[in-house]
C-alpha cells in the first residue's frame, strides 16, 4: 500500500523517536504498511513530517523486534509475514502466559483486574466489528497483566518482545486460536483471576493455546528417533 502523502496529525517534537516508532509500529500491525513494502527515508519523512534521524532510530528498533528488515545499501522494508516465526512466538507466548497466570493470579489487585476487564470489553467490540488489529491489541493487553502481576521482569520483557508476532498472528488468521468465541474463553480466564484461582486460570490459558502448541510441535519438532540419531542440529 503506498504511503500517505502527509499524516493528518503532525508528530510531537518531544520524544520523536518513540512517537515515530509508535506510528510505524501501528502502521505495520494494522496493514497500512504492507508486508514486504520498501520503506524509503524521504517518503517516511514526508509522511511523518520529521527528520531522518528519529526515523532511522525507530526503524532500527523495529528491526530488533522482527517487524522491519534492513540490509545495508540494499533495502529497508516491512518484514514479510513469517509463519514459522509467528508459530515460534505463539508457542513461547502460550507457555509464558500460562506460567504468569499461575504465579500472578493469587495476588492480582483490583486495578489489574479492572484493566483486564476493560481489555476484554474492547476485544468483544473488536470481534463484533471484525477489527483484527484491535482484537490483537486487546488480547495482548489482557494477558500482559499476568506478566506484570508476576513481578518477574524477565518474563514481562520476553512476553512484550513476542507481542508483535502475536499481533501479526491475529491479523492473518480470521479465527485466532481456532476459537468460535474467543471473548468467552477470555471471560472464563478473567473469572478465575477474579477468584484468585491461579491453577484454574493457568489451566484455561493452557487449553486456549493447546491447539496452537500441538500444531507447532507437529510441524517442527523432530521425532525421538531423529533426535537420538542426531542430538545436535
UniProtKB/TrEMBL annotation:
One of its GO terms (molecular function) is DNA-binding transcription factor activity. SMART domains: FCD (SM00895), HTH_GNTR (SM00345). The keyword Transcription applies. It comes from the Bacteria. CDD domains: WHTH_GntR. Keywords: DNA-binding, Transcription, Transcription regulation. Residues 14-81 form the HTH gntR-type domain. This is GntR family transcriptional regulator.
Amino acid at each position: 500500500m503506498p504511503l500517505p502523502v502527509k499524516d493528518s496529525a503532525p508528530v510531537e517534537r518531544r520524544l520523536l523517536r518513540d512517537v515515530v516508532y509508535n506510528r510505524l509500529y501501528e502502521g505495520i500491525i494494522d496493514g497500512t504498511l504492507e508486508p514486504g513494502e520498501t520503506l524509503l527515508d524521504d517518503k517516511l519523512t514526508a509522511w511523518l513530517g520529521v527528520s531522518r534521524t528519529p526515523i532511522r532510530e525507530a526503524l532500527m528498533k523495529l528491526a530488533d523486534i522482527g517487524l522491519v528488515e534492513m540490509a545495508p545499501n540494499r533495502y529497508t522494508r516491512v518484514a514479510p509475514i513469517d509463519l514459522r516465526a509467528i508459530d515460534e512466538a505463539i508457542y513461547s507466548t502460550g507457555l509464558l502466559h500460562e506460567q504468569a497466570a499461575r504465579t500472578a493470579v493469587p495476588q492480582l489487585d483490583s486495578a489489574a483486574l479492572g484493566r483486564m476487564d476493560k481489555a476484554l470489553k474492547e476485544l468483544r467490540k473488536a470481534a463484533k466489528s471484525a477489527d483484527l488489529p484491535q482484537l490483537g491489541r486487546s488480547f495482548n493487553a489482557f494477558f500482559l497483566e499476568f506478566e506484570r502481576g508476576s513481578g518477574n521482569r524477565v518474563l514481562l520483557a520476553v512476553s512484550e518482545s513476542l507481542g508483535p508476532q502475536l499481533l501479526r498472528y491475529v491479523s492473518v488468521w480470521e479465527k485466532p486460536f481456532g476459537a468460535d468465541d474467543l471473548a468467552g474463553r477470555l471471560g472464563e480466564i478473567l473469572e478465575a483471576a477474579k477468584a484468585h484461582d491461579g491453577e484454574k486460570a493457568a489451566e484455561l490459558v493452557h487449553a486456549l493455546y493447546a491447539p496452537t502448541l500441538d500444531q507447532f510441535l507437529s510441524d517442527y519438532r523432530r521425532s525421538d528417533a531423529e533426535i537420538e540419531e542426531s542430538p545436535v542440529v
